[in-house]
Amino acid sequence: MKLVRFLMKLNNETVTVELKNGSVVHGTITGVDMQMNTHLKTVKMTTRNRDPVSLDSLSIRGNNIRYFVLPDALPLDTLLVDDAPKPKGRKKDDTRGRGGPRGARGGGDRGGGGRGGGRGRGRGRGRGF
To answer: Which SMART domains match (predicted)?
Structure first.
């Protein structure tokens, strides 16, 4: 399971997020998207060497996040279950452009005629050296 898929399940959980610039953000997750952009409510943000600031909501761009500190009571075993549907394998008929003669129309003998013969294991008419 991708980390982002796990984080997307953490709605309404109160977490602490440390950012790459050293700031620490504490708040309740309202949403996480595929780029790990995280949206929080009832936020307390502590920037380095400054007093904490309280905010109603805050959005953090995903590439600015260093790590999440999760609550101890979080049921990781149930959240980490991979419930995403598996991609179905394609059927044999569904493959395109495989195994046909290159650039030719219709069946034919797949090359090998004319001077020079085919490539690979032909009809055993080598040069007799």
So the answer is: Sm
Residue 19's pLDDT is 96
**pLDDT number for residue 79:** 87
Nearest to 66 by CA among 16, 25, 19: 19
Residue at 85: amino acid letter: P
**Whether the model pTM is above 0.85:** no
Q: How far apart are CA 56 and CA 43, in angstroms?
A: 6
Residue from 88, 86, 65 nearest 10 by CA: 65
Give the span between the Cα atoms of 9 and 78, in whole angstroms. 10
Q: Are strands 65-69 and 53-60 parallel, antiparallel or unpaired?
A: unpaired
Tell which residue, 67, 62, 74, has the closest CA to residue 12: 74
**Residue that has been written with the tokens 């709605």 in this structure:** 11
Domain boundaries, the chain: 3-71
User: How confident is the model over 31-81, as pLDDT tens digits?
Assistant: 999 999 999 999 999 999 999 999 999 999 999 999 999 999 988 888 888
> Architecture of 3-71 per CATH?
Roll (2.30)
